[in-house]
Every structure is written in C-alpha cells, then in structure tokens.
Design goal:
The chain has about 220 residues and is of the alpha+beta class. It contains nine helices and five strands; from the N terminus they run H-H-E-E-H-E-H-H-H-H-H-E-E-H.
Length: about 220
C-alpha cells in the first residue's frame, strides 16, 4: 500500500471521529498571568515548555494542538509519525495541549509527569493505545493512571509530579494559547505557522512537503 493510499484510508477513519468539546481546563491560580503572556506573544504556537518530537533544529515545525482523549488525535497519530519518518532530519513536532474532554486533564498531567522521567513518547503511545478504556466517550471511564503498567513509569513519583505548580502552569498557559489561537477542535495543525487550508491527512502531508521543499 503506497503512502497516499495509507493516508487516504486513515483520513476516512479520522474524519469519522473528528470532534471536540469546548471546555478548557483552567485553574483559578495563574489564569490571568497565562492569558497575559499569551496575548504578548502572537501567534502563541511554540513555547519553550512544549514537548518536541524530532530534531529540535529542524527547519519545518508542525505544531499540533492535541487532546489525549480525542479519537481524531488518536487516528492522526500514525500519520504524524509517518510524516516524521519521511522527513527525519527536516521535521519536528511541537505538542500543545487542548484539553477539551472531561478525562483529558488527568491525561495531560500524566504526560507532563512522564516527561520528567523521559517517558513522554512511551506514555503518549500507551494513552492512545488504551484510549477506549479511559476516554470511552459516553460510558464510564477507567482512570488513565490504570493503563500505565509496563511503560517503565515510576507511578508513585509521577502522581506527585502531576500535581506540581509547574504542571498546572503548563496547562494554564496552553489553555490560554488555545483560546488566543482560536483552536476549537483537535487535532489542529500549523506548519511553520501556517494553518491547513482544509482539514485532512493529505492536506497536512502536502503542506509539510511544500515547507520542506522551500527550506
């Protein structure tokens, strides 16, 4: 199966689940300061605290506003990895959190705690693999903490780190940037600051390919 066939097939899956809520996680503490920082940095797409996948100095940056509980984000995850594999030295992915679903905030805390143990990618993969368990959309959900066995994550420490002011601050700042960037659905992609002209896997690939050629 060639690349365009794979992308086209995955697009059909992703299109069927592309949806998001409109609730943002925000805690009272730090909300105003996060919004002020976001307003001073337009467009608020890349932040020093944001997780980066791929070479940090890559000439092409995909910013993905991602919700770990989003079914479409799960469907697009293999596409993003495929694009990175196609352009291994040219593309990096910057992850921003858009915690729209009720179970998303816990998952974001877990991911941020996993970063401190260098387990971000492993835990992100596990959360997507087990998403129907902890983010079942309309059915009772298990805690996302219950799906982490075997990832190598020191869970007791992660639970402490997940409550830290730094993690809360990251979530507040990302929530403010989501609002400032007018992100209303996940996943939302920007490639070198450019939004997709139309949502779709092929559109994402084509824009990345154009930016790679230009750089």
């Amino acid at each position: 199966m060639n690349r365009r066939t794979v992308i086209a097939a995955t697009t059909l899956v992703a299109a069927g689940v592309f949806a998001a809520g409109t609730l943002l996680y925000q805690s009272t503490s730090g909300q105003q300061s996060a919004a002020a920082i976001a307003a001073a940095n337009e467009p608020p797409l890349v932040r020093p605290h944001a997780p980066v996948l791929g070479p940090v100095d890559a000439p092409v940056t995909i910013v993905e506003f991602l919700d770990p509980a989003c079914e479409a984000c799960r469907a697009f995850h293999p596409i993003v990895k495929e694009i990175m594999a196609k352009f291994p030295d040219k593309v990096r992915v910057v992850i921003r959190y858009a915690a729209f679903h009720p179970t998303s905030a816990d998952a974001v805390r877990i991911l941020e705690a996993a970063r401190l143990q260098d387990k971000f990618v492993t835990v992100l993969e596990r959360l997507f693999e087990t998403q129907p368990q902890w983010a079942p959309h309309g059915r009772p959900a298990d805690s996302a903490w219950t799906v982490l066995d075997g990832t190598g994550l020191y869970i007791a420490k992660a639970k402490l780190d997940a409550k830290s002011p730094d993690v809360v601050g990251t979530m507040n700042l990302d929530a403010a940037d989501v609002k400032a960037a007018n992100v209303t659905k996940t996943p939302t992609f920007f490639v070198n600051g450019k939004p997709l002209s139309k949502f779709g896997a092929q559109q994402l690939y084509d824009l990345v390919e154009d930016e790679v050629a230009a750089n």
